[in-house]
Design brief:
- By secondary structure, the chain is α+β, with helices and mostly antiparallel strands.
- It has a domain of 99 residues.
- 38% of the residues lie in helices and 31% in strands.
- The protein has 1 helix and 8 strands, in the order H-E-E-E-E-E-E-E-E.
């Protein structure tokens, strides 16, 4: 039985072991990258939503002498408007916490119910938005009328 061509059972088993090890490593990297993508896209989405809220409030602060900012504490839904707070500030699936300071002393008050804001004074804001999974984004800023 000299000069037999082919592969032995040991060679097949070694090849299968190496192949399974390499495929397990590739699968782990793939799953890790999917989880990282989901985490980053959630963070980006919350950041964009928070920036949109701040931009909307800044727009009202610079263009109106007074406006109404409101937060329904039972549903955690915020809204804004000139005569009544009837324009929603964020998407329905998000919860929001707004703290504000119009005195300039950095003593924040939690927004509950409607609050008339005088735009002649700087407005310090702390905004925290939370999604259904518990991920959140926080922004602290000062809005001034120039």
């Amino acid at each position: 039985m000299k000069n037999q061509k082919g592969i032995t059972l040991i060679e097949v088993l070694a090849t299968l072991a190496i192949l399974s090890l390499v495929s397990t490593l590739i699968y782990g990297v793939f799953i890790g990258s999917q989880q990282n993508f989901k985490r980053i896209s959630t963070k980006t989405s919350l950041s964009q939503e928070a920036n949109l809220i701040v931009a909307t409030i800044k727009n009202y602060h610079t263009k109106n002498n007074k406006y109404i900012l409101s937060l329904d504490s039972s549903t955690q839904k915020a809204s804004i408007g000139t005569t009544s707070a009837n324009i929603p500030l964020h998407k329905d699936k998000l919860k929001i916490l707004i703290k504000y300071d119009v005195t300039g002393t950095n003593t924040y008050s939690v927004l509950t119910g409607p609050k008339e804001i005088d735009s002649s004074k700087p407005l310090s804001l702390y905004i925290k938005i939370t999604d259904q999974n518990g991920d959140f984004e926080e922004i602290e800023t000062i809005i001034k009328r120039y």
